[in-house]
Amino acid sequence: MLVSEERLPVLNNVFRLMNNRASAISALSVEASLRNVRMIETPIKGSLDIDITEKSTGKGVPLAPFIVYVNNAEEFTGRCDTKGKYSYELSLKNHRSVVDVYHARKRLVEASDSLSVLWDNFNDNEIDRKLWDTFSGKSMWPGTPKAYERGNRIVFDCAATRSLAGIHTVKPVDISNGRIKAKLYSGGIVTCFISILPSTEPFQGASYNKGYDIGIWEDGGTKLFVYSGEKTVYRQRTLKANPEIIEIVLDGDTIRFLEGGSEVYSETYKPPSKLCNIYLWAHHWWYQGRGSSWADDFLFVGG
């Protein structure tokens, strides 16, 4: 991503010329990662770890200079330690942010890395329409399913049998080498899901989507399940907890599903594209009567 021409008019032309080929010609590698993210705060905070190494040896570059930008605005500059590493307490106010880390010396960008970060702790009782769209499905019984923020979470109110409600990202994200994480709660008879679908595919519901779905169901015979396309590829008859932390991790061409920090299932990623929309949603499947589930502490980090 190019930096703002207004903020760095001299560097901008160099960035434009160098960014696309920096990693191919540079003897250096820049890796950036975000860890220990604290979702209870606004803005959220986490540790941005920078690692600058020599490609040929894998050794850290002592005192390597770097520049960090958040959404095209310079955040800070500095130098790594003697092992080519640096950690910085990063704050992210915007629910959709891009963090760029450049190794730059003498106005030349020698290598770079970029992180795409989406997050929402749903703590303001108003859905961020820049990040999310809402959707709902009809029911065979009276009632209107809907998704809304309340009590520092996104609530999926499924009014009656066969109804569903949820939210999905307004713009698709590249989930390559990414991690999706959220806290899910199943309200008894109502399941709660995280789903990922290639941006060209319509949402049709679990066991019909042409992507992946992982869901929990408090009152179901199967408490946790993973769908790969139309197939149920994993079933589990117990839950560690409800609510539970559910994660989807893309590691190269392998997709992994985690419950409470432990992997429960993995397979080779099958859809034709990793440019995907992310869905948080709930489905009232079997019984008559009103029910609701919710999600919280959504985080996606890719790049």
Following the backbone from N to C, one meets helices and strands in this order, namely: HEEEEEEEEEEEEEEEEEEEEEE
Low-confidence stretches: 1-25
Q: CATH topology of the largest domain, what is it called?
A: Jelly Rolls
Shape: elongated
CATH class of the largest domain: Mainly Beta
N-C termini distance = 12 Å
Rg measurement, Å: 21 Å
Task: Describe what you observe in this structure.
- The protein has 303 residues and is mainly beta.
- The protein folds into two domains: 9-117, Immunoglobulins (Immunoglobulin-like), CATH 2.60.40; 121-302, Jelly Rolls (Sandwich), CATH 2.60.120.
- Helix content is 6%, strand content 54%.
- The chain has one helix at 9-25; strands spanning 28-38, 44-54, 65-70, 73-79, 85-92, 96-105, 108-120, 132-137, 146-149, 154-158, 164-169, 173-174, 179-185, 190-198, 212-216, 224-228, 231-236, 244-251, 254-259, 262-268, 275-284, 291-302.
- Strands 3, 4, 6, 7, 9, 10, 13, 18, 19, 20 and 22 form an eleven-stranded antiparallel beta sheet that branches. Strands 8, 11, 12, 14, 15, 16, 17 and 21 form an eight-stranded antiparallel beta sheet that branches. A three-stranded antiparallel beta sheet has the order 1-2-5, with no helix packed on it.
- β6 (96-105) and β7 (108-120) form a beta hairpin.
- The chain is elongated, with a radius of gyration of 21 Å.
